[in-house]
Amino acid sequence: MRVRDLRKDYGQGPVFDGLGFALDAGETLSVIGPSGCGKSTLLTLLAGLDNPDGGEARVGEDVPARPARAAEAESGSGPARVAYILQDYGLFPWKTVEDNVGLPLQLGGATRAARRERTAAVLAEMGLTGLGDRYPAQLSGGQRQRVAIARALITDPEVLLMDEPFSSLDALTRARLQNTVLELWRRRRPTCVLVTHNVEEAVFLGRHIMVLNGRPARKALWLTNPCFGDPDARSREAYFDLTRRVYAALTPPDGPNPASELLDSPEGGPACAR
Question: CA-to-CA distance for 196 and 32, rounded, in angstroms?
């Protein structure tokens, strides 16, 4: 994934004016910043749902990226590029869990039998076996988010974009789903970009962490996370060091700084002791 000299303006001043970064295949990036700094706009550009006014947002060989194609994932005839997990789940209330999850395959022309087989496998992977006949209103918030993740995974995407997927969940459910996403990444190794307002979540789920600030948004901080992939990272000193550094980067220069003592610390912080 490569973003180079990215520019976007909706007519009220530029959102981006020269943003750039690169991410290797199979890596994860957490993007964090204040409201209105362009985090969700970045995802829509990466997903190919909107076009930049200048520069490029490249995923693999595609400029712009293209959404995952269910027919390709079903037949194996080509790569399934991008899946997008929305903040509000994006589930159809009149469809069952099975039909919501299998919708990308249906749109791609997969047979009913093929859809049921693939859907059953993904529901099992997400711990949702036995819930296929229920409707979204009959599920908890955590279960609905698992359904949204299952629908994203059904096309075996190479790139997974997540826009604050756990923001409406309680702390314990959020932590469990963070662990679930980390385990899914270990098994499938997609390239992941997570947008979040939660600093601890950004540090737990990002091998790389990018802090955006200002308008137009600038890359205020880029960190590589030595604790990424460790399910016990939340108890490591390096994890707390990184969270303090991210908080420091998010704090306005004239505001109270909960991590000011770390502004002069080495880039990246200490290694993650295990």
Answer: 5
